[in-house]
Amino acid sequence: MKTNQQQPKSSPLSENAVRETLNALYSFDSRHIFATLIRLLGDFDIAEEALHEAFRIALEQWPRDGVPANPKAWLVSTGRFKAVDGIRRRARFDVLEDADALADPSSEDAEAWDDECLEDDSLRLIFTCCHPALPPDAQVALTLREVCGLATEEIARAFLTPAATLAQRIVRAKAKIRDARIPYQVPGHAELPDRLEAVLRVIYLVFNEGYSASSGPLLTRHDLSEEAIRLGRLLVELLPEPEAQGLLALMLLQESRRAARSSPSGELILLDDQDRALWNREQIAEGSALVERALLSQRFGLYTLQAAIAAVHANAMDAAVTDWAQIAALYEILMRADSSPVIELNRAVAVAMRDGPAAGLDLVDAILGRGNLADYHLAHAVRADLCRRLGKTTEARAAYEQALVLARQEPERRFLERRLRELRD
Fold first, then answer.
1. CB of 144 within 8 A of CB of 150?
2. Which CA distances in Å does 348 have to 168, 331, 342, 379, 387?
């Protein structure tokens, strides 16, 4: 591959045409380019500056000289060259192992700047941001900022954290990576299972916040769930492990219901009441195929099991034909792998649908009786619904009121208030 000085150019284009080309490159490839610049320059902030400088120079030069044959390689080479030039002017070489080699745009390293190399660097960046030496909240923030390219203010709004606090969290995480010399690499085979789990957990947390916002005026945050799915696709493409496929399947199957989960005015619509014609059948088909592939591997885990449950829901064309026996059985298997109270609560819902509300209520009361999920609004909402279905109006009202105290998302609060009014009428 030729460097930016040597690459053949296309015919000169208008500034508007170049701007459109660069906007498309920035939207789809800038984080890949950024990941490679981090590897070459060894510093997050310098790489960020280099990325934007490369795009600025391209906007100046490409209308005159034409778009290079390999624009991504051109941007990497130009960004690296300008960064090293700036470092030399400031006489700072501490972040570079070999400043002369990096500054030489004809170095052999440039020969490997193809799409595969850029994708490999993106995978390295994901594992670096999710390194276990970093606190979990920092892993999420750093991944959204550096891998997804979300602004600090966007991330802060999504997770109800002051922007200054989140910015400091990101700064500390970058400093930890630098000072602890955390390797910028995909872990070896022996480390991969534990390290992959951290990456999957971060993507899962990001998706969950997008699928059902923990608080605020909106039921969902499409930007976050979209980024999580993008990360999931990238991970499956670069590292097609069964659990990565399972997580992507889970996200696609859950996301397939987005259009039906709320009314045009933003009111929450429960699963049984959703218009299934609005469900995204392409996402359901893709997610179902991924579930089957992961299950056939016999090396699946929690995400694949959850995806299998989501697939049963997604493939029921009507709520009345949902196979609750299969769902309850899958939750039994899931509980053997992870006996968390939330999974136990979801199993109680499935049992209630299979065996009747009284059976489900016994299970929910046992969970709450142990002190588990006392501060989880959905546990009280489930109990309220089961009591309502059993005609236990007083208990239902009390449970709805407790759920309302704990809920922080406005659509959920309005739904609970409607249920309370119905019981009082």
1. yes
2. 41, 9, 10, 10, 13
Cβ-proximal residues to 59 (8 Å cutoff; 6+ apart), any chain: 15, 18, 19, 22
Q: Which residue has the tokens 């922080």?
A: 408
Q: How far apart are CA 244 and CA 393, in angstroms?
A: 44
Do 290 and 269 meet the contact criterion of CB atoms below 8 Å apart? Answer: no
pTM of the model: 0.76
pLDDT at 219 (0 to 100): 85
CA dist., res. 64 & res. 146, Å (int): 32
Residues 6 or more apart from 395 whose CB is under 8 A from it? 383, 384, 387
Residues ≥6 apart with Cβ < 8 Å to 299: 241, 242, 243
- Residue from 374, 332, 365, 336 nearest 350 by CA: 332
pLDDT in tens, 238-267: 788 999 999 999 999 999 999 999 999 999
